[in-house]
Amino acid sequence: MAEPGIFGIDLGTTNSCISILSDGRPRVIPVDGNGVVPSVVSVSGDEIMVGRRAKNRAIAFPEQSVRSVKRRMGTDWSIVIGKKTYSPEDISAMILRYLRDEAERLEGRKVSNAVITVPAYFSDAQRRATIEAGKKAGLSVERIINEPTAAALFYDHINISSGDVAGSWKHALVYDLGGGTFDVSVLRMSEIIEVLASTGDTRLGGDDFDGCISTHLIDLIVANGGTDLSEFAPAIARLSAIAEQAKMDLSVKATVMIEEANIPTPDGRGCAISTEVSRNDVDEWTSHLLERTVDFVRKSLDEAKLHARDIDKVLLVGGMTRMPAVTQRIVELFGDASMPAVDPDLSVAFGAAIQGGIISGENVEQILLDVTSHTLSLEAINPYTGELVCVPIIPRNNQIPATRARQFWTVEKNQKYVQLDVYQGESDLPEENTLIGRSKLELAKAEADSPVEVEYSYDLNGIIRLTAEHKGFSKKVEVYFDSRNPEETRSQSLAEDLPEDLEEPELPAAPVNFVTHRARTLLNGMSDGPGKTSLADILARYESALAEDSDDIDGIEDELLSAMDEL
Amino acid sequence: MIESAYELLKIPRNAAPEEVRAAYVKMVRRYPPESFPERFAALRNAYEKACLGDDYLQNLLKSGTFRMSKAEFAGFLWGDRSELASDESGIRDLAARAGGGDSRKAEDILESVDISNIEWRGKN
Predict the structure, then answer these.
(1) N or C: which end of chain B has fewer CB within 10 A?
(2) Do A21 and A357 contact (CB within 8 A), yes or no?
(3) Which of A513, A516, A550, A556 to mutate to test the interface with B (most CBs of B within 10 A)?
(4) What mean pLDDT is predicted for residues B47-54?
(5) Do residue B52 and residue B78 come from a single domain?
(6) B70: which chain A residues are within 8 Å (Cβ-Cβ)?
(7) For the structural domain made of A206-285, what CATH number should be given?
């Protein structure tokens, strides 16, 4: 029986994709034919349709269908279809469950563990909502990783597999323009992959390009004496589908003819449209969107302290990078950098499968260090102005996992509690940032100005935890907050102890680094004998040296490496 | 025992930036964040201290509009927010308590506080 394995899922705005690492290579599971599954859900009575079928049905029944739900993740948006109300997590869970069921059917094995990708610029609430959707679909979400980082992981993997020296290209920029979101990340790639800067917009993608085109089509209908359909949902659904098709056709053709006889109108009589649209027209209508992505590219280079000429490779990810205007603009910006040609629809899912392999211990060769995409701050009183300001604790572009603490002070004698409001954003004005959690820590009786240390932890999933300590009066406690209902204050009393899962994790039984992985792989392939016993002995000593952090670890590591080289 | 940044990276104090980086990469490969998240955080902090310098954190914040100097990081945490507007006098003396409004002095006070081992003698 095949190992269960950790599957990689790219849960995209427009399309989703599921993949798995097999024999060291990522492979897409051909759900819906080629593995690119439209992220569309359509509900007909008791039947839930997902993917290609749902996409086709959505054109006729837009009010019973949901597209681009990813843009609603982490919000309180909901939709009523039939008699049921669905949250964004519910809809995303339907897509995930479909991917899971179809993959199980095609692979003939259970799919229970997954790595799911999200835009790098996703907030804490959006990440938590994604994990929730995974749980609702019956998946154990092993990790949430950033989409541009997943793509970089995949490109790096290709390089390693093809025997390319890891150091042959140093700086890469991932330009990821998907159906609904845009991310740009700058990476330094050597023996380890480090994200230097990451930025983006979770509301900028192919949907907006389609929107520009359909707005022009609506204007054209009005100009020809038709009704203004800009408020009529069935017409917009129809025109968006036409716009999307025209945009895709224009990636390979200079002009397209748009002819549609049956556009729904409020009076039920329908209207027709017939017009020729050229690539130049669309480029012109959407140039402001393209320029917004360029602004983000410049910003991320700036934050990484690099110039465009320092970038050796530009990785183009996301279906929108097929648009010729996008590639042209990138060439203008990064003249000499090469752009490896890899399927822009699949590389994120491939990267997610590789990350799955890293977690399961199948792939320990690649080490990836990602960063935070937002500054996390705490609201406090600025003593010089008396104003409430955001005091940064973990800055953006800080490598993760990260733990940082800062000391604050109480205002009053015998202050009963301190209000701990966690914000995300780049301003020192709370009103310009996003509140992600509100909680308070009860205090013991103390003088004014007694110190309260507040510590933030940002884990590998990009989830934030908060611990606080009234110094000299209490133990460190975890302070909970609810990022999906940020206005609600969670109160934390001093009596509660640190939850157990915050304790130091036990060393996993799986290989922990590339040295132990290599040794274990070798041992598995060796027949019993003195050679095997001796290698197993050095490995055991090395593993305990790692766990105990003993001083002679360097010596044992060298001994183990040379013993393996001799074999 | 708190290890110094240099001890953690196993490098001499006068190591050049390239050596610090090489040591960091070597240690991260030995202790990948996947298996040793806390160890990684310590290595990262050591690398920042030994190689990227004290301005590193401040530089990361430059893209935002955080205008606070180091001294102003002496943020005070209010309890009941509804009192904030009414009790102006309490707020007014915070600056004095944070170092008399002299940011240089406030910075000195902060510097002198050993956060890792503070003992607060309040009257209970």
Answers:
(1) N
(2) yes
(3) A513
(4) 78
(5) no
(6) none
(7) 3.90.640.10
Q: Which residues of B touch A418 (CB under 8 A)?
A: 77-79
pLDDT in tens, B53-110: 767 777 777 766 776 545 445 678 877 655 554 455 555 567 667 654 444 444 444 4
Are residues B88 and B54 located together in one domain of the fold?
no
pLDDT at B122 over 60: no
Count of CB pairs separated by less than 8 Å, A with B: 192
Give catalytic residue positions of A: 10, 70, 147, 176
Chain A contact for B85, CB < 8 A? no
Neighbours of A551 (CB within 10 A): 9
Distances in Å between the Cα of A320 and the Cα atoms of A71, A129, A204, A208 are 16, 25, 11, 11
Stretch (H or E) spanning A81 = strand A79-81
Domain formed by A7-203+305-369, architecture: 2-Layer Sandwich (3.30)
Instruction: Write out the residue range of the structural domain in which residue B46 sits.
Output: 5-61
Partner-chain contact B68 A428, CB within 8 Å: yes
Reply yes or no on whether the pLDDT at B112 is more than 60: no
Instruction: Give percent of chain A above pLDDT 90.
Output: 57
The pLDDT of residue A168 is 63
Choose among A465, A460, A501: nearest CA to A480. Answer: A465
* Cα separations in angstroms, B117 against A286, A450, A472: 58, 14, 9
What's the gap in Å between the CA of B12 and the closest CA on chain A? 16
Backbone φ, ψ for residue A338 (5° rounding): -90, 155
Strand partners, A274: A259
What secondary structure letter does DSSP report for A31? T
* Interacting residues of A551 by C-beta distance below 8 A, sequence separation 6+: none
The verdict on a CB contact (< 8 Å) between A375 and B80 is no
Tell me the nearest-neighbour CA distance from A330 into chain B, angstroms. Answer: 23
- Choose among A2, A1, A4, A34: nearest CA to A360: A4
Determine contact, residues A174/A195, Cβ cutoff 8 Å.
no
Cβ-contact A294, A329 below 8 angstroms: yes
Cβ(A475)–Cβ(A469) below 8 Å: yes
Give domain A376-502's CATH architecture.
Sandwich (2.60)
Query: Residue B36 falls within a domain, yes or no?
Result: yes
Question: For chain B, how many structural domains are there in total?
Answer: 2
Going from N- to C-terminal start, the domains of chain A cover 7-203+305-369, 206-285, 376-502, 514-566
Give counts: helices (H), strands (E), chain A: 12, 27
CB neighbour list of residue A450: distance below 8 Å, 6 or more residues apart = A409, A410, A443, A470, A471, A472, A473, B120, B122
Q: How many CA atoms lie within 13 A of B112 on its CB side?
A: 7
DSSP reduced 3-state for A333: helix
